[in-house]
Specification:
This protein is of the alpha+beta class. The protein is built from nine helices and twelve strands.
């Protein structure tokens, strides 16, 4: 899906930034490959093609969100970018301007919503509203005395329940602590924790939860900021929000010649034959 060169070696010595004009016997390259399973990738392709569009290339979503939310200088000195989506949080590590590592954790903002819905016994839509209006990962002294009202499941019209913001904070913090604990674990297992530096950029819709930046800084022991996607020419201002980092990052990947967008090649199973079978394959692709 993604294949990028992160360094070159000349006769085993490196890394060499540019071997042009140098003498040697063996030129080798260190590559970073990101792969995807055929089934989900095929379903994504079908969804795009049903909208009467053609796929011309692939870009890994952690790379796209990292390009949009981090700066060039951050990617040079080392940075960890966390894209906090609804169901998945992706990690991407950049150093020396290269995309070095990526991973995905099946924990996101929707899990916090379901935690609230279960703990307070309220509908999921109401739990999302509560999280948006009252959720805060970093508490305040007034949380113990501040209450909010909400309908219970099945009793939306008979009466309202109440809960404190302190109780809500405990629910949200439990999920945030699990998420950032898994981030630390995955980063340590990768062996690239040292390359990530002391900088973390949060992006994605989940990063807009109040206090999540301060909580991540305390939990990970690094400087943390919430990154908004860098604007692209003629891009609507409404897209300059963390929730659109991946989409905006696709534009950055296409516009940046240093990013190698892997071209999509259609399977040639039906086109390798001759005569009527080949014509059928061509007709299917054209249709």
């Amino acid at each position: 899906m993604h294949l990028g060169c992160i360094g070159m070696r000349l006769d085993g010595v490196g890394p060499v930034a540019d071997p042009t004009g140098m003498a040697g016997r063996v030129l080798s390259a260190d590559m970073h490959a990101v792969t995807a399973d055929d089934t989900p990738l095929g379903n994504l392709l079908m969804a795009v093609e049903r909208a009467h569009l053609n796929v011309v290339g692939f870009v890994a979503s952690p790379l796209a969100s990292g390009l949009a939310a981090t700066t060039l200088e951050e990617r040079r000195v080392g940075v960890l970018c966390l894209d906090m989506g609804g169901g998945v949080t992706t990690l991407s590590v950049f150093a020396d301007g290269h995309f070095l590592f990526t991973d995905a954790i099946a924990v996101g903002g929707s899990h916090m919503t379901f935690d609230i819905a279960r703990a307070l016994s309220t509908p999921v839509a109401e739990a999302e509203r509560i999280k948006t209006l009252y959720g805060n990962v970093v508490g305040a002294a007034s949380d113990e005395t501040e209450y909010f009202s909400y309908p219970a499941v099945g009793d939306e019209e008979t009466g309202l329940c109440q809960s404190s913001r302190a109780r809500l904070r405990e629910i949200v913090q439990a999920r945030a602590d699990l998420l950032f604990g898994l981030v630390e674990q995955r980063l340590e297992e990768s062996g690239l924790a040292g390359y990530a530096g002391q900088r973390v950029v949060l992006t994605g819709g989940g990063s807009q939860l109040a206090g999540v930046g301060a909580y991540a800084a305390d939990r990970l022991g690094k400087a943390v900021r919430v990154g908004r996607p860098a604007a692209v020419a003629r891009m609507p201002e409404s897209l300059s929000a963390p929730a659109f980092s991946t989409v905006v990052g696709l534009l950055h990947a296409v516009c940046d010649p240093s990013i190698e967008v892997r071209a999509y090649q259609e399977p040639e199973t039906l086109a390798t034959g001759t005569g009527s079978l080949q014509r059928v394959g061509q007709w299917i692709r054209g249709f």
